[in-house]
Amino acid sequence: MPNPAYKGEWRPKQIENPKYQGDWVHPQIDNPEYVANPELYAYNNIGAIGLEIWQVKSGSIFDNILITDSLEEAEQARKEPLTRKANEQNCEEEQRKIRDAEAKANEDKDKDDDNKDDDKDDKEDL
Questions:
Q1: How far apart are CA 67 and CA 73, in angstroms?
Q2: Do 34 and 51 meet the contact criterion of CB atoms below 8 Å apart?
Q3: DSSP assignment of 56-92
Q4: Cα 105 to chain center, whole Å?
Q5: What angle is formed at CA 52 by the lines to CA 51 and CA 54, rounded to 5 degrees?
Q6: 55-74 burial, b for 16+ CB within 10 Å, e for fewer?
Q7: CA–CA dist 85, 79 (Å, integer)
Q8: Which of 39, 59, 81, 115 lies 20 to 30 Å (CA to CA) from residue 65?
């Protein structure tokens, strides 16, 4: 049902701030002891590394983490799980085919056994 008194979404009234001087800009203070070091980030030996992984879903497992500076090594590591997954899928497909063939063979055997039993019953009835 429409409301004739509705004037749109409510917003608080804005009043002027007489002390407002514009956006705040932080002051630049000279540091006489500062010396630029272009190799600040370079370390000869990193003994450890820490990773913070945020999980959206609990129970997630991260087991393939690679840290390297070699693009070739990273590409090889990326291809390895894909190849492994393809091999697993092929093995699963072969196993499924074998199971299906065995199930069909057992089904055919059961039908033959049922037919033999029916023949025996027919002979006994005579």
A1: 10
A2: no
A3: SSTT---------S-HHHHHHHHHHHHHHHHHHHHHH
A4: 41
A5: 140
A6: eeeeeeeeeeeeeeeeeeee
A7: 10
A8: 39
pTM of the model: 0.31
Each of the 126 residues of the chain gets a pLDDT tens digit; together they read: 788 898 889 999 989 999 998 999 999 999 999 999 998 888 888 788 888 888 777 888 777 788 888 999 999 888 887 787 788 888 888 999 999 989 888 887 777 666 665 555 555 555
Stated as kind and residue range, the H or E segment containing 124 is: helix 71-125
Read off the tokens for 112. 């033959």
Q: Which 3-state string (H, E, C) describes 2-44?
A: CCCCCCCCCCCCCCCCCCCCCCCCCCCCCCCCCCCCCCCCCCC
CA distance 28 to 72: 45
